[in-house]
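Check these lines:
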Amino acid sequence: MALTADTYGRITNPAVLYVSTNWEWVDLPASQQQNFANWYSYYRTRTNSAKTAMSRACLPRSTPTSA
């Protein structure tokens, strides 16, 4: 069974992805595992920073207190 998509590029039969015979387990060298860990950590931090910045930008401004 082939993976198909509609005219918008959306997958129309995602159940095909979850059939174990469609996947092959491979062993990755430690360098590739570390590369993925670095990539994931970088982009996770970047995404979380962007979310934090957006949520802070939407907070109401506080009025400065006089000293």
